[in-house]
């Protein structure tokens, strides 16, 4: 379902031409950079007779072991994600640092052409490597990964998004792409990385690569793995910004569709582990054992620690910052959506075009980063500067570049640098007169458009850091324009500008506020930060949706939002449920079961009892395709249509019905049965969920959507209003709640009137 403020163009997914016209349990979406089939997840526990008997047989020791392993996995997630986050920063700072040092030394020697060639070729090789391994090894690793993880936590399962090779390519590809001076970030890929680590641990490792641990295979259902993936996404943000509380709130506000207090405690535990491990590793680097890491890097130092002094009159400038930031953020989302759609048409031509586009963006970026500082005038070194001027080497506010002795190039200090160092320079205190306003303006425009062009390439790329650096340059530029009319220094304006641009693009408030406060280590900024985030988000909501919702819509993920469209209140579930409906008898012939499984792609089948087992047809429950395949593989068949005796359940183990990992599941084509077996019978009663969620056909579609989303269902059974009809009208799946399906059935419904109203009154989007 699209966000209520999404523009008309965004309401048409890129894959609309590939979707089936009729309702189907199988759909497709763009996962990473490839088109893949997607399915829904089973977050509902199947309460069948076998499940109940298995739980009754568990001892207190087994229950304690189950709870203990949850906490242990949260601990492992925190340890592994923090080590990966530290390694990412260590690798980027040293790779990019060596590149900048070599290039700077050549320029100091007057070898500008050779410096340009070294800089451009190095960036091209790094980008080519990142795009090649992504395109050929793990296409699911392309992009930030946040839309894929967010869709998964909403109940959408896509192949390979959490596989081991996706994890490796995400780490190595992001290091290579960021080191190649592309204007992309590490935070989004770290969220995906944390989710991959959590998923792999939750399924006991990776069978494909022989990395399995039987003692970890306790979490064999989608609900437990969903909780672990939520922990992993929070740990990823905590490792990116050294913001443990911000990571918890990010998972709550942006990622998770379901939340409870027990999950909150475990996520907080994971992010606390991340913070402790990072602190220990940073202390090691401060002793000079990490090469160039420690002389820059966003997670290394407090980028702003000066006491803030502001007055009531500064509120007006903050209001202006928030309004303009909201407008710029929504415009940023609009352009990014257009660019992603354009890139998709290029990618349809083949893998080679994906790599060529990435290399072209790399060359264009290198030319801008190297050439633009030559347009900036050289500034004389300020008297009493706190650091060496001009700066020789890795980082600093006074890059010499092409300037004579005693002068520095302020634009080079921003643009000819890593993103982390650029943010540190923009946030720095006591630097109100070190940057010329034209240099900051050029830097803002460059970052604004380069980040849009760079995000869609076939490589692991995040949006957090590019949005922060773009917003920081915008905020500092506003501070320079206001000058003495405000009591806030330019570093504070940069922090607030980053907040306003983040709020305008990503539409988060609480989590962004805490992340920026933890990042800057300045609690006195809290009132101003809250104000600018609220204003920028409110302004931007009047134009379009947040960036991740737009990307999910473009990719075609059937995401269920936490609000309903007004026209859904005019419809009942009976208006949208479609057929044909496939039903099994409680005791069904094996041949019939095999035929239905081969002729349909459905993943859930109602089980109905009729004569002689019941006086009239009655709904017994729902059985999953995966469970039926397990029964067929066990070949526990009956020669006559009679029920299983109680001893038959002892032939099965709970692990046999457990959810498989991220690899391919069982298929009916893999089950070979003889003619004799096909003429036998199978009792489905003990393995059917005898208490599935059901609704009357007269329930409003809006009310059914709330139930479907809040409980985390895959199937919602629709029963008739009167008893003189068959016991089941149909089954609602995620696809039935998608606007494309509803409006396809009811073309007379028009959303234009509601859309115009919501644009004028955006708060209507939050009214259920």
From TrEMBL:
Keywords tagged on the record: CBS domain, Chloride, Chloride channel, Ion channel, Ion transport, Membrane, Repeat, Transmembrane, Transmembrane helix, Transport, Voltage-gated channel
SMART domains tied to this protein: CBS (SM00116)
Signal peptide span: none
TM regions (residue ranges): 63-84, 116-142, 162-184, 263-282, 315-335, 355-376, 435-457, 463-482, 494-517, 523-543
Descriptive protein name: Chloride channel protein
A single GO molecular function term of this UniProt record: voltage-gated chloride channel activity
Topology versus the membrane: Multi-pass membrane protein
Pfam family, one: CBS
Domain of life the protein comes from: Eukaryota
Species annotation: Microthlaspi erraticum
Cellular component aspect of the GO annotation: chloride channel complex; plant-type vacuole membrane
Domain CBS: start-end pairs: 687-748
Lineage of source species: Eukaryota, Viridiplantae, Streptophyta, Embryophyta, Tracheophyta
Protein location: Membrane
Family, per entry: Belongs to the chloride channel (TC 2.A.49) family.
Protein transport keyword on record: no
